[in-house]
Amino acid sequence: MKYIGVGALVVDYYYKKNQFLGRMNGKSFQNIGINLKYLGNSVKIIGSVGEDETGTFALNTLEKLNIETKIKRLSIPTNRIYIVDNLHHLEWNGKRYYQKDKEIYQIKAEKEDILIVDNVYKNTIESIKNSTCEKVLDLGSATYFLYVKKEKIIETFRNLFTIINMNEKAYNLMKGKLKIEAQEMCKCWNVKLLIVTHGKKGISFYTSALKKEYEIKQPYKEIDASGAGDAFFSVILNEYQKNERKITENFLDDCFELGNEYVKKVVERNGALSHILPLEK
User: Fold this and answer.
1) How far apart are CA 96 and CA 101, in angstroms?
2) Average pLDDT over all residues of the chain
3) For residue 92, pLDDT beyond 50
4) Residue 91 has pLDDT above 80, yes or no
5) Best label site of 13, 24, 100, 161, fewest CB within 10 Å?
6) Which of 260, 251, 240, 104 is nearest to 162 (CA)?
7) What's domain 3-267's architecture?
8) Is 124 exposed, middle or buried (0-12, 13-18, 19+ CB in 10 A)?
9) For residue 165, which of 35, 67, 77, 20 has the smallest C-alpha distance?
């Protein structure tokens, strides 16, 4: 059984007070995959990356971690995301590169595998829709759906994902578009588990029959929160497999406790993956 991350690789460049701290692999599907490898799982990354030095760096990092890859090299530059930490405020900065015609990824997955994606762009849906294994989504932004009709949103999500993880901002946008609450989303999309993260405040778990809300009573000593959500989701996926893919109240309680402890290690350093890899200068 493998966890398979699907998408275009990026490299994050970290700055603080205009001082370059270092760089490391980034983007949610990749961060989740690397965390799952660190937690002892078999992981594969399928996708694309630029045929430049930054792309080579991204691939070399995955090789160092013994993560299996199937990556197409592209002539465009590697996506670069510059993260500026100014009193814990994260901003996009610098140039971002996009493919005009996004890649359709050829995925060979076994039925027991789990596919991980972090967007629902047309090329991503086309890449994963015919796979018979489970698929999970980490949705960091829902702005893509601002001008999409309600019926199209429902059609995009229905019967595609087993678990969906999204932050509070993405959830509120989705709720406003669909005019339904989280448990109705689970029913409408046929999702086993919907997770809504609330940053330092806590996390909410929803199924069509359950609603569980957890408060973080002792906030973390936070230096950089950029990888917290990805790390938490990786713990949930790790426990999901251990629990024979059953969603129960005890499972959700365990996920909160274990995820909370794991995230503490993540946010006390600069860099979303610095609990696993050092920032490279």
Assistant:
1) 15
2) 90
3) no
4) no
5) 100
6) 240
7) 3-Layer(aba) Sandwich (3.40)
8) buried
9) 35
Q: Which two tokens stand for residue 151?
A: 């019926």
Q: What letter would DSSP give residue 280?
A: B
CA distance 101 to 70: 19
- CB contact at 8 A, 23 and 11: yes
Q: Tokens 């930054």 map to which residue?
A: 54
Our CA angle for 36, 218, 140, nearest 5°, is: 45
Give the residue among 213, 218, 219, 217 at the shortest CA–CA distance from 253. 213
- Alpha-carbon distance of 113 to 15, in angstroms, equals 37
Which pLDDT score, from 0 to 100, does residue 84 have?
A: 56
- Which amino acid type is present at position 238? N
- Do 207 and 253 form a contact (C-beta atoms < 8 A)? no
Residue 124's φ and ψ, nearest 5 degrees, are -65, -45
247: left (phi over 0), alpha (psi -120 to 50) or beta: beta
Instruction: Give the model confidence (pLDDT) of 175-197 as tens digits.
Output: 999 999 999 999 999 999 999 99
Say how many residues make up the chain. Answer: 281
- Give me the sheet containing 3-8, strands edge to edge: 68-74, 43-50, 3-8, 114-117, 134-139, 163-167, 193-197, 202-206, 211-215
The DSSP call for residue 107 is: -
Q: At 250, list the tokens.
A: 């005890």
Write the single-letter amino acid at 50.
G
Chain centroid to CA 133: how far? 18
Q: State pLDDT tens for residues 219-248.
A: 778 888 888 999 999 999 999 999 999 999
